[in-house]
Amino acid sequence: MSIVVLKLINGDEVIADRVLAMYKKPRVFQMIPTERGMSGALMPYIMSCPDATVKIAEFAIVTEVEATKQIEDAYLQHTSGIDLSSKLN
To answer: 14 exposed, middle or buried (CB, 10 Å; 0-12, 13-18, 19+)?
Structure first.
């Protein structure tokens, strides 16, 4: 599993599991207003088919980086439903 963050030419940040040249279960990182200010949220890249595996045209990708542990955990929790925030003492 290789969770990556893509910056697209339209400004979107997409988090996905990269498999060769395809991206599984892509999510877009968006800032949303809350009662305590702004917070980040992951939204499906394609709303009508949120768990699709997609190809994103190379010319649309400005850069690609490996996701940080925090982003990877948030992505995995969002796409699998498994809560990775709890730790054993």
So the answer is: buried
